[in-house]
Amino acid sequence: MLPKINTVLGTVRDVEKVWMTRHEAAKYLGVSYDWVKRQNLGGGLSYYKVDGVVFIAKRDLDKLITKNKVY
What we know:
CATH architecture: Orthogonal Bundle
Number of helices: 3
Shape: globular
Largest sheet: 3 strands, antiparallel
């Protein structure tokens, strides 16, 4: 379930995560943490690092999956 955010205009219920940690990315894709880390370190998946924490853009996860389509 997505988090509930209270704003001046009311409550927003459907907020989509834009940035994920490696653990969240692994859960999102249904793969292991190690697989995500290998993709990062191997150059197959871009990541950003802030104060030692790795963040991955959801759009990059979606691109990774869609570019590997098997017909």
